[in-house]
Every structure is written in C-alpha cells, then in structure tokens.
Amino acid sequence: MITMLDVAKKAGVSKATVSRVLAGNSYVSKTTRDRVFKAVEETCYRPNLLARNLATSKSQSIGLMVSNTLYNGPYFTELLFQTATSTENYGRQLILADGKHSAEEERQAIEFLLDLRCDGIIVYPCFLNADELTEIISASTKPIIVMNRRLEHSPQHCVYADHQQYSLNAVSHLIKSGHRDIAFICGSPGSPSANSRLQGYRKALELHGIPFREQWVVEGAWTPRSGLAAAATLLERGIHFTALVASNDDMAMGAANSLYAAGKRIPQDVSLIGFDDIPMATYFIPSVSSVKVPVAEMIKTTLRQLVDMMEGRPYEALKPFPGELIVRESTGPGPYQ
C-alpha cells in the first residue's frame, strides 16, 4: 500500500510537507504543492481519511442521525433529499447513521458520528427525550442541532414546527365549516409529533365547546395500511363522524379506502384532512386537504444554523415554523353551518 512517505520520496520533500499540502496549508509554495500533487497522481496515493480527520479535527462532513422508523414514505424521502442537497451546497459530505428502535440506539448512532469526526451533527430523534438530548448537546465538543423537537434548555440547538398549533388550526377549520363530529387518527405511540397533533385536536375541541371522546380517537402507525385499519375501527364502533383528521397524508389516504368500502363519500359524507402535504395528496381522488409542513425551509435553516456554529459565527434561538392548511377537494361543509 502506498504511504505518505512514498509520496514524499517521489516529490523530494519531507513527509510533513506532504501532510501540509494535503491539509490545504497556505504556507507551502506553489512549486512544492505542484510537485506533491504530481507525486500523489503518479503513485495513486489515497490519504487515510480517518487519520487526516484525527490530525486536522475536521472532516468536511455533516452527520444525520435518523431512526429507521421514518425510512418509509415520502416524508423521509423529502427530509433526506433536502438535507443532502443543502449539505452539498455547503461543500460537505452527508453521513447517515441509523438510530434504529430505541433511545440507547439513537445515542449510539450519535456517538458513531462523533467518532467519525463529523464537523456537525443533525439529530432527528424518535426516542430520546428533551432532557437526554440537552445532555448530549452539552457534552459534545461538536455542534449538534435537533430537528422536530423543542428543547427548552437548549433553544439555539433545535429547529421545529408547531405541530400542536397547526393541528388546532386544521380542526378549527373543520369546526368553522360546520363539523362537530370529528374523529382523529393518531401517529405512532411515543412520537412527539403524534402527541402534539393529538393535543392540537383536543385543544380545538375544547376551544369550541365540543367534548373530547376517547372512542373517537384511534392509534395509527404513519402508514396507509394503519390508516385503513384505523378508519375501519372507527366505523366498526358505530361512530357517526362527519369529518376525519389523520396525523399524516399516508394514513388519510388509507382511511379513504375504508370509507369508500363502507359506502361513504368524500367529502359529501366525511370530510378528510391529513398532514405533511406530500405530492400524492394533490393527485389522489379526491385531492386531499393537508397541512403543509415546511420541510425544505426547516432543513435549510438547520444547516445554516449548524454551519454558523461550526465556523464560530453568532447564532440565536429560532422561532417554531408554522404549518399551512392547504384546502382541497376532500373537505366540504358540515351539517352545523
């Protein structure tokens, strides 16, 4: 295997000079740099990336920790695409680490990225709680930003959307449209986004004097199949609802299939709202009303904040991102107008 010493001998310089050239040191003359790069080309030398990272404390890479519970569906595709594109715009590589199925495995994935000397890390947690994340941020020598989670004690290190508020707004829209009998499909249990959206639903009912009924809420798992099953459960309970809110678009579309199978028309019999505004929501028949979560803007803001931290520039706590209800064909007037 070709080593740095072989390159130094070929170029007629010291090993330290080769190291300085490859590290981009500006105090090396152009003539010397040209000789070193020519020797690198002729010997087919490939620097040991980990060794270089250890020597320079920089890897020109950004880590992303995300648990594989999010791998399915268009939301994760959008998240990964926007993160990779934004990272590339900053001239850095993206390294993905899998947080798997537990808080401990998420912690191990973050430690893996730190061991690789990533210059900064984005964490999209499912299982680590706010206190645990704050502890990890405080102990790290590299900047870490958490997405989709509010951190009360580390406000500069989090970028999140106000899930509760825009869920409240979506349910309030249905109520103002004449609906009072509104059912709800939750996301996966333990998910902060799912919990916040459920709280928004409950708060909207409370604000409009509508009682919350446990039987009108069914647990889902973010997938179309779980939405189909959840809607079927609501129908089997004999509940007469004129509107249904699903915690994401995939579940809303799955729920639509159960409604059609039961002879329910959308929106004439049941108005339907989802979340995330995935591309398919526009092309589904009828097109699905959905709360648009600004994923692209959140990612760009996250990267900008992270790079500011990495390069020692000043930064401040960020405000939560608002969601926007996109009203389409799947919602209509209710019986209480």
Topology:
Blueprint lengths: L3 H8 L3 H8 L7 H14 L5 H8 L4 E6 L7 H16 L3 E6 L4 H13 L4 E5 L5 H10 L4 E4 L10 E2 L3 H14 L5 E5 L5 H16 L9 E3 L4 H13 L6 E4 L2 H13 L9 E5 L4 H4 L5 E4 L2 H16 L13 E3 L11
Parallel strand pairs: 1-2, 1-3, 3-4, 4-5, 6-7, 6-8, 8-9, 9-10
Antiparallel strand pairs: 10-11
Helix pairs in contact: 1-2, 1-3, 5-13, 8-9, 10-11
Main attributes of the structure:
alpha/beta, 337 residues, five-stranded parallel sheet
- From N to C, what is the helix and strand string? HHHHEHEHEHEEHEHEHEHEHEHE
What fraction, in percent, of the residue positions are helical? Answer: 40-55%
Radius of gyration: 26 Å
Low-confidence runs of at least 5 consecutive residues: none
Q: Report how far the terminal alpha carbons are from each other.
A: 78 Å
Mean of residue pLDDT values: 88
Q: Biggest sheet, in brief? A: 6 strands, mixed
- Count of alpha/pi helices: 13
Strand proportion: 5-15%
Strand order of the largest sheet: 7-6-8-9-10-11
Number of strands: 11
What is the molecular shape?
Answer: elongated
Structural class: alpha/beta
